[in-house]
Amino acid sequence: MAVAQESIAQVRIALEGFSEAYGKGDVDEIMSYFAPEDSLTGFGTGADERNLGWEEHRAQIERDISQSESRQVYITWFKGQVHGDVAWAATEWSFKIVAGGQEMEGMGRTTYVLKKYGLNWLIVQSHASLPAAQEEGESFPEA
């Protein structure tokens, strides 16, 4: 049990490091949190943000950074599980982003699958979303 808890803590530290790197806008540092695999997959919040492989993922990160003046992203909720060298996590995060001179603040959600490479947990799959606008307690937004 202690080993699993330590691994879950390491996964959270890795995801917090990714969030910090994203805030700094250093593409190389950001990409150091992703597994350099052709099977790396990711979904972002935009309609066209579907990435397969290292190069597509890097291009998405480069686009994010080039289209924003500043980014702050903080994990506000985290749940994770580990099974051997594979982990999965669900997070909620708050963000403050300046893009096109406009400041945006809000909350998002991301799920991750990570794989252990040596001593490091690296992301192999991610899926980011923004919550729909339905009222609390309602399963669907009004049409």
Describe the structure.
- It is a single chain.
- A hairpin with a 2-residue loop joins strand 3 and strand 4 (86-99).
- The chain is an alpha+beta fold and 143 residues long.
- The protein has a six-stranded mixed beta sheet with strand order 2-1-6-5-4-3.
- It has three helices and six strands.
- The protein has helices spanning 2-24, 27-31, 54-66; strands at 41-43, 50-52, 70-83, 86-99, 102-117, 120-129.
Please name the CATH architecture: Roll
In N-to-C order, the SSE pattern is HHEEHEEEE
Into which percentage range does the β-strand content fall? 35-45%
What's the gyration radius in Å? 16 Å
Low-confidence stretches: none
Describe the largest sheet. 6 strands, mixed
What is the helix tally?
3
- What percent of the residues sit in helical stretches (DSSP H or I)? 25-40%
Label the structural class: alpha+beta
Q: What is the 3D shape?
A: globular
How would you describe the oligomerization state of the chains in this entry?
single chain
What is this structure, in a nutshell?
The protein has 143 residues and is of the alpha+beta class. The chain has helices spanning 2-24, 27-31, 54-66, and strands at residues 41-43, 50-52, 70-83, 86-99, 102-117, 120-129. A hairpin with a 2-residue loop joins strand 4 (86-99) and strand 5 (102-117).
